[in-house]
Amino acid sequence: KQKRATTFTLDANMYDLKEDEKGRLWLGIISLIPYHRIHLRLSSPWRFSGTIRIVLRGKRVEIHYTEEEDCPDPKPESRGEKFFAPTQRITGIDKGFGDVLMDSEGNSYGEEQGKILRAESDRLGEKNKKRNQIWAVAEKANKKGNLEKAARIRKNNLGKKKYARQKWAARKRIKTYIGTAVHKFFQQKQPEIVVGENLNFNHQGKTELPRKVKRYFSGWLKGVMQETIEMRCLRSGAAYASVNAAYTSQVCSFCGCFGKRNGNTFHCLNARCGRVVNAHYIW
To answer: Which alpha helices (DSSP H) does the chain contain, by range?
Structure first.
């Protein structure tokens, strides 16, 4: 059994774009039949050129392409200079699981992210639990020699198309939510320099996390969040600086002393300070 390809690339010589009398765009793709092209009507009015990628997702055909975008000249510090001008707007951000990010003034953006991630993780966990139970029934029937029953169970209950479609749709909703929160941050703060934590780490440590917590973290799209912030910096001409995330939520942002964290609440243990703030707050 061969796996069907669901994506392929086409250069500019392998397709053409035409507009009909109603102003609709049609994409003509070369086929195995000489001088015959497969025509697809596009749902958007945008034209494109160069190499494109065709993605087959169920009954929908997606066209992925790149285009050049005019961006402001990067700030000097983004070209490698070490020092920032004192007049530049420097904003620190803390990327989190509960909310998308919090700025250095304590403003939170995307407060519902944790709720959305947990809901989707719980849905997948319950779905996988039921699928495993059904799979066990199918395997039991297979061992007893009832191959027809086993095949019927797999065909009607263990398909992957709907499962993958729902998972992809949930991921798309989360990415959209992250993008909206990051856009709101840049729109309100208009930073020239953004300083954020480096979250390139795994959750394997001395303390073994519960399975449910691991599942929550696995659905946390840290890479998507980082790419969205860096792309937004590029578009607005802001510089992005990455710092080590070690101890950033265990040290007081005001006095620099170690403190105690209880969930999202940070308690400074310095008697002269004693502040109680959100653990994601950075100064």
So the answer is: 113-143, 147-157, 161-189, 211-218, 222-236
